[in-house]
Specification:
This protein starts with a helix and ends in a 9-residue tail after the last helix. A 3-stranded antiparallel β-sheet has the order 1-3-2, covered by helices on one side. Helices cover about 35% and strands about 20% of the residues. By secondary structure, the protein is an alpha+beta fold. The chain has one domain. Strand 2 and strand 3 form a beta hairpin. The protein has helices at about 1-5, 30-45, 65-75, and strands at about 20-25, 50-55, 60-65.
Length: about 80
Amino acid sequence: MLGLEKIIDNSELGISDDYFVFMFSVYNIKGKIEIISLAEKILNEKIGFYKKYLCQRGSVIVYVKNRKGLENVINMLNLNNFICE
C-alpha cells in the first residue's frame, strides 16, 4: 500500500473531483478484508469522502469521488461491459 500512502487529494492540485479514481483487483488476494480495510483507512485520511463501487461481481473495487469519476474511468479504459454497483 506504499503507493496509496503517497496519494494527494486532487483538490489540493486544483483538479476536479471528476478525475479522482483509485481501483484495485481483489480477485485471489489473500487477506483481502485486511487490505480493503487498510486502503479505506488511508483513503479516509488522505482524501476524505469517496464512493465505493464493487465491479465485476466484486472482483474489482473502484473508489471515486462522484459518479462522473466512475464514468470517466470506464470510458478512459474502454470498459463498456464493466458492471459496477
